[in-house]
Amino acid sequence: MKFNLLGHDKSCPYNGRGMTCLPVGKVHHARYLLLLVFCFNFGGMSASAQSTVNLDTFKNIPILDEGRVKPLDTYAQNLLLRFSGRRSFDRKPAIEWLARLLLDSDSVRDDKIFMINSLDIPMALKIEPAKKRRYSYAQIEPEFVKIIQLAEVAETIAEKERSIVEQEVLRLYYNMMQYAKLTQALSFARPHDDFHVHDAALRKKIHLPAEQTKFSFWDIVTRSEHLYALTEKLEDTTPEFWSEGDKALMGLVSNLYQWSLLYHKIPFAVVPTDIAEDETWLSPWDILRENFHNEIIRKEIGLLHTIAVGYRTKDQKMFDAAAKAFTDSLAGRVIKKQRKNIEKIPLELQYNKRHFFLWAKLLYGLAFFLFLFSFFKSTPILRAASLWIIGVGFASQLTGVIMRCIIMSRPPVTNLYETFVFVGLICVLLGVIVELVNKRWLGIMVASLLGLLFLMISAKFSAEGDTMRMMVAVLDSNFWLATHVVTITIGYAGCSVAGLIGHMYLIQRMMPSCNAQTLQSTYRNLLGTLIFGLATTFLGTFLGGIWADQSWGRFWGWDPKENGALLIVLWCSIILHAKVGRLIGQKGVAIFSALGLIVVMWAWFGVNLLNVGLHSYGFTSGIATGLIVYVIAEIIFLTFSGFYLRKKT
Amino acid sequence: MKQLRKNRILKSLSSIKITVICLSLLFILTLWGTIDQVNNGLYLAQERFFNSLIFLIGGYVPFPGARLVLWVLFINLVSASITRLVYRWRQAGIILIHSGLLLFFVAAFVTFHGTEESQLTLSEGEGRNVSANYNQWELSVWEIKKSNKNVFAYPTKNFSVGDRVEFTPHDFSVRIDAYYPNSEAFLAGEGQTSVLVNPSNIQVVKPIPVDKEPERNVPGGIFSVYGTDQKDLRILLYGGENVPAIITKNNKTYAMQLRHKRHVLPFILKLKDFRMEVHPNTEMARSYESLVEVISNDTSREVLISMNEPLRYKDFTFYQASYAMDQFGRELSTLAVVKNSGRLLPYVASLATFAGLLLHLILMAFGGKKR
C-alpha cells in the first residue's frame, strides 16, 4: 500500500482510507486522485497472465471521444500514440494494451509506454534515462509527487512561453493522470478487499455466491435491495448492540456508498445518457451515479461487468456475447446521427486494419525504384509494369480516402493531414496522365516520387493524434469544404507537379545525352501542368473569396492563408507573362516553376508555421527545419543548373 | 481603333515588362504583408502594404503600396487590351481571362470605396436600428429633448490640430486643440482645479502608440467650443466614456460625445434567442445561431442567422460574428453588419477568369496536338 507517501485521511472509520470526493482537472487536485488510485488499485486481483482473449468484439465497442463516436480500436491507437508516440505496443495491437489497462491494470504497470522527450525530466525524477525515451508507470509513480510540483509550476506559465521541459512535464503529467483514471474506469467490476464477505450467512442473506468471498462493487451494488432490507432493521439500534455480522454488513454498505462517490469525470465515455436528444455520453462510474435508476443503463453496466469477468476468466463466449450485446444496446437507443456512426464502426475497423496508405507508399516506392532502374535498362514492359504498380497504389490510396469520407461524412480534405494525403493522390493522378501523354517515364517519376513523399509527410503528421477530428463552427460547411478546399488542394498538386517537371527538364537538359525531342515533350508537359495549377489555384482562391463573402461579408481580407494562395497565382502569372514577353526562355520557365514549389509549400503549410515561436517543439518545428533545409538545397541546385546550362549553351 | 492600336503612348504603357514588374511587386508586397502581420497585426499590415499608394521603409526609402501597383497594372491591362491582345478565336481564352481581370479591378475599386462595416451587439430581447463601427470614431452632438434626437457627427479620421468643425444647425463650432487616435485618460488629482470640462472629471489625455488590433484603440481629444453660453469653453472627451459632455445655449441643452461611428439601419433588428452548440463531450463549438426579428415599417419576420448562413436584407448583410455573456448571465450576440453595393462583381469576375483559363488550357491542348 503506497498511499502513505501522501499521508492519509483517518475520517473513514471502516477502512481507514481517505475517501474524499474526487476532484478533477486542476493540477493541485491530483494528489487526491493519486491517493485514490493507490488505495484501490493494487489491493485487488493478482496479476493474471498475458491476454489470451480474442478482442474482435471488444474493439467494436463505440466510445465518444473528442466529439466523435469511434470504435475502441481507434481510441486505443490514439491513446497509445499520445502516450508513447506509437500505435502499437510490443508489436501487439493497441487494443490489447487498452484491454489490459482497463481490465487487468496491474499487468500494464511495467509496460514502458510513457515517452519523455527530454533528458532533464528523468534526471529530475532520479530515474535512469532510457535509450528509447520510454518509461513505465511503475518507474515514474514513486516520483509522481515531484511531477505534480513541476506541473503546477509549468501550468502558471503562458502556453507560448513554456520551454520544452515544461511542455514535456505537463504532457507527462496529463498522460499519467489519464492513465490513472483509466485504470479505474471499470474498477466497479474488479473484486476488491473492500468487498470481502467472510461471513457465509451474510453471503447467503444477500444472495451472493457461496463459494466466493471477495466481490466487486458491482456484485454488491446489484444486491442493494437485500442490503437495504437488512440494514433497515438496524436503523433503530446503536452500534454497541450490533453483532459481528451486523458490523460486517454496515462496513459493506459504507464502502459501497464511499465507492459510489469516488470517481467523477473518468475520460472513458462509453455509455450515452438517458436524456432524449442529448448527445453526451458518460463513463460507467458517472452514469452509475446519474442514471442508476434506468433499467436499460443498469443492464448495460452489467454487460460491461460481464465483459470484465469474461476477460478475467478467459471465457471467450461470455466475453464476446457481452461485448456484442453492449454495442447493440447502445446502437438501439442513441440518437440517429450517433447510430449512423456506430453503424460505420466495422468500416473504420477495416480502415484501421488494412493500412491502405502504407500499401500505396510501398507500391510508389517500388515504382520509383523501377524508374531509377530504367536508366540502366528501359523496356516498354518495365514501363507498363511501373505504371500498373502505380495504378494499384493509387487504387489503394483512393480506397483509403473514400473510406475516410464515408466514416466522417465529409469531403476528403478537412485538416492539414488530409491535405497531404489528397494532394499526393492528385499528384499521382496527374503523373499518370502525364505518362500516358509523354510515354517517357516522366509521369512515372512524378507520380511515384510525389505520391511517396506526400504520404511520408502525412504519416509524420498523423503522429499528432486522431486524424479524424471534429471541425470548428466556421469551417463546418460540407459544401465549401468540397468546393473551395478541394480545388485549392488540387491547385497545390498541379503546381507541385509543374515544379517537379521543371526540375526534370533542367536535369534532362544538363545530361550529356540530351535528346531535343524528349526535352520538348517535357517542356510541353511543364506548361500544361503549370496552367492547370494556375487555373485550379485561381478557382480555389476565388471560391475561398466567395466563402469568405458568404460567411464574413468580405471577399478578400489579405489574411495569411488568402495571401498564400494569391502568391501562387501571382507566381504562375509572372512566369507566363515573362515567357510571353520573352523575358525568360524555356530554361527560365523551368527554373521559375521549380522555385514555384517553394511558393506552394509556403502557401500550403509555411503560413501555418508563422505563429510558431522559438519555444515550439516536436513536429511543427521539425517541419520548419525541413522546409529551410529544402529551400537552401533548392536554391543551390537551381543556381548551379542555371550557370551550368549557360556555360553549356 | 486601328489608330489607337498604333498609339505610341498606349504601346509603351501596355509593355509586358510593366506587367511582370507589377506582378513581382505585388508578389513581394503580399509576402511581406503576410510576414508583417505576425508582429503588427492584420489591420496595420493591411493599411501599410495594401491600402496605401506609397509607404516608407525604415522611415526614408519609399516603396509602392499595393493600391498604386494595382492602379498601374490596371492602366497596363487597359492599354494592353487595346494594343496587344489579338482578338481571334484562338485567343478567346486569353481574352476572357483578361476581361475577367478588368472586372476584378472594377470590383476591387467598388468594394474598397463602397463597403461599410460595422457591428451590432444585442442581448436577448433587445432591438436596435443603429450599428457601430468598431474602429472608426466620430465627434457627435445632439440636442437633449424628449422626442427623437437628431445627431450631427463628424468622423474623426482626418482630424488634425487647429481644424474647425461647424455644427451649423445648432450654430456653434468646435476647434480641435488636441486629438489622439489612441490615448490614456487620467482623472484630476486631489486639489487640482478643473480647467477642462469633462463629465467624468478626466483632466489629462495622453497619446499612446496605435494598437495592432484597431478595435482596441480609444481616442481622446481636447476641443474648444465657440458660440455657446459659456466663454472659453474647452471640453475634454475620451472615447472610453459612456456619458456625454453637456453644453448649454439659449436655454437648450446639448450633448457632445466622442463615440464609435454609428450607422443607421432602415429597419430594426431584435435578438430573440441565441444558441450555441458544442461537439458532445467537448468544449469545441459546433454551431452558433441567433434568432432575430427584422422589424421594418409595419411588418416583421423572424430569421435564423448562423455560421455560414447570414441574413441579407436591403443592402445589408448580417453575419454571426461572436458572442459573449454579460455580468448578469445574459447572452450577447454580435453580428457583423456589412453594407456592400458591389457584392456580385467579384463573383462574375472570378467566373469569367476561370472560364478563360479553362478555355485556354483546352485550346492549348488542342493546338498542341495539331502541331
Low-confidence stretches of chain B: none
Q: Rg of chain B from C-alpha positions?
A: 27 Å
Distance between the termini of chain B: 33 Å
Count structural domains of chain B: 3
Largest sheet strand order of chain A = 1-2
How many structural domains of chain A?
Answer: 4
Amino-to-carboxy terminus distance of chain A? 83 Å
How many helices of chain A in DSSP terms? 25
Number of separate strands of chain B:
18
Fold and architecture overview:
- The complex is a heterodimer of chains A (649) and B (371).
- By secondary structure, chain A is mainly α.
- Chain A folds into four domains: 3-44 and 109-184, no CATH class; 188-343, no CATH class; 355-470; 477-649.
- Chain A contains 25 helices and ten strands.
- In chain A, strands 1-2 form a two-stranded antiparallel ribbon.
- Chain A is elongated, with a radius of gyration of 31 Å.
- Chain B is an alpha+beta fold.
- Chain B has three domains: 2-114 and 344-370, no CATH class; 117-128 and 264-340, DU1608 C-terminal domain (Tick-borne Encephalitis virus Glycoprotein, domain 1, Sandwich), CATH 2.60.98.40; 136-261, no CATH class.
- In chain B, the strands form five sheets. In chain B, strands 4, 5, 12, 13, 14 and 15 form a six-stranded antiparallel beta sheet that branches.
- In chain B, strand 12 (245-249) and strand 13 (252-278) form a beta hairpin.
- Chain B is globular.
- Chain B starts with a helix and ends with a helix.
- The mean pLDDT of chain B is 86.
- At the A-B interface, helix 22 and helix 23 of A face helix 3, helix 5, strand 14, strand 17 and strand 18 of B.
